[in-house]
Amino acid sequence: MSLYLHDMPGGAAWSAPVSAGRLVTLTALGDRANCSMLLLNADRVDRLNIPDTLKAQMSARITAPMVLMSDRGLALASVVASSLDWHDCLTGFGSEAHLERFGATSYAADRNDWRRSARTGLVSELTKHGLDERDLHAPVNFFTKVAIAGDARASMTFVPGHARAGDSVTLRTEHDVLLVLCTAPHPLDPGEYAPSAVQVSVEVAATVAQDTDPSWNWREESARALEMSRRVLA
Hints:
Layout: E1 4-8, E2 13-18, E3 22-28, E4 35-41, H1 50-56, E5 67-69, E6 75-82, H2 107-110, H3 118-127, E7 140-142, E8 146-148, E9 156-158, E10 168-173, E11 177-182, E12 198-204, H4 220-233
Antiparallel strand pairs: 1-12, 2-11, 3-10, 3-12, 4-7, 4-11, 5-6, 6-10, 8-9
């Protein structure tokens, strides 16, 4: 049973504090969804560290049952389920420059159809919690996959058709966290500006048995991050 259910329109931003021991499920409500996520500990001491998360778990993507680690190596959340085997975490969030190809836009002219970048949305949400652009960090772009292009520079390229309506990913919060989300298009998406909505559901997580939980048994580094979080919360 959901404690909280919210539908984020495409191109929107949303944030909320989420207690430890919750399941946060993001569900794509349309094709080509992208949901950029920032994650900070409630006390602001720790925030998501993508380089350490990838390096410790020998990966270039986010997928279940990986652990999302902080600057100090604590587990902020675990990816406990995903209908997709790849969520981008290498290419960052879109800026206003990425929207220039769609032409001029403003709230005065377009009202609720005003086109906003992920950077604008994320900073707007951070300010609601006493934070600002200095607290931006590398995000996870849920529902998006990137690959190496076949050019001499080995550029990153957007993989079309990766996410469809109904795809979902579930996080288990290991700390009290601030969750910041934006459904603006991925910066490498070459299509028209038509971002899909994403549903956010929060419910209570079941008690974890360390010997059988996939995240605890994923890698030694994952277990160590979860154990450090357990000790901090003890």
